[in-house]
Amino acid sequence: MTKKLPNNELERIANTTMADVVEIRLREYLKTSAFKPGDALPKEIELANSLGVSRNVVREALSRLRMLGMVETKKKRGMVLARPDILGSFERVLDPAIIDEHTLRDLFELRLTLEVGLADLLYLRKTAKDIAELEQIAKSQKVTGDKQTFRIQHEIAFHGKLYQMTGNDTMSRFQSMLLPVFGYLVTLEKKPIIGKVSHLDLVKILKEGTKEEFRQGMLQHLEHHFKKIQ
Amino acid sequence: MTKKLPNNELERIANTTMADVVEIRLREYLKTSAFKPGDALPKEIELANSLGVSRNVVREALSRLRMLGMVETKKKRGMVLARPDILGSFERVLDPAIIDEHTLRDLFELRLTLEVGLADLLYLRKTAKDIAELEQIAKSQKVTGDKQTFRIQHEIAFHGKLYQMTGNDTMSRFQSMLLPVFGYLVTLEKKPIIGKVSHLDLVKILKEGTKEEFRQGMLQHLEHHFKKIQ
User: Fold this and answer.
1) A115 interaction partners in chain B (CB closer than 8 Å)
2) How many domains does chain B have?
3) Which residue of A has its CA nearest to B215?
4) What is the ipTM of this complex?
5) What pLDDT digit, counting tens, does each position of A123-148 carry?
6) A11: domain range?
7) What's B219's domain CATH number?
8) Where in this chain does the entry annotate a coiled-coil region (chains A, B) (predicted)?
């Protein structure tokens, strides 16, 4: 990565617009002046004057911060600093059609890593109700068989429920954002690969087994994916 | 989460600007028309005409896509679809000062989950050279003791190196983005908590032990963090 940097850096400067510069300056300003959520920003015209740029450029930069959820407009108070939706813009760019192969593979591995690490949170927070729901999902899979569309839907439903059971909203949302990436990768597989440990087996472990048994079960369930990345 | 949605949604509509609408339309258009990286976008004026909005609004929306890395300007070709930097805008908003407590806790758990899941990739890709470097980092820690600033720096160096050893650039960058969050959380601790398994112990396992021994070692190393989230 370090070796590629000089070139990228040179190109980036050539392509930098005034809005890029103002956006960076504004973020630095908000940070160094210790703005807190709810604090009102200076007026557009004041920002333009002190930066020595046009109002249009300031508006463009503020529009970006608005998209990131860092600022919002309040009645009577104007622009204020907001609590950003940290995954919002990540969601915007997570389109498998425009992400390069290398990054897709990285994201695939990231998901496998999370999935193996999930046991600890699951065993802290799982409830009988959640397990019953998970079991329903796993059972319905057996009925519909292995047609590809159903298979992907079931994968999504089952693993999505597991993440939800961790009680971690951010992680749960993060994984649901990664789904298009995995849907995309699964469609590249010629035929369904069924792991040694099925979804129903995993439910059984969650009910009766230990955290470590669940982790080992998950590793076996994902075994064919791990083989792919070797 | 679902219960809160109606309110948020209502507020969001009230606060929607033309740039928000045009941004969404443009992203949908690029997606449904199956634009690929390198494909040229219609001219600003054409987009403005077909959407029936001013050029300023189109420019504002394009500026956002540009910030996300979804479009870039090429000499002679104008705006083209680009491969976005998927973590770029995530990085922009990851400031512990403006993230709410709930999300900070979620991110903390997300990192713990990754750390426990890391063993598989580590054992696929670790090299003798990497382990030697990791050992150097762990040893230097012993010398400087437990002063808080040093301690945080060492935590960062050691765990950062572990992520780098996975060969997964995205995950490695993701964890380095999360660091300000953990730096922030660690400063809230009154005194350093040393786990049963030290960094040097983890290095020893990486050298001589199995993947599962490493995972158990990591779990013990992180034990006091897991206790916190119970």
Assistant:
1) 117
2) 2
3) A117
4) 0.85
5) 999 999 999 999 999 998 765 555 66
6) 5-81
7) 1.20.120.530
8) none
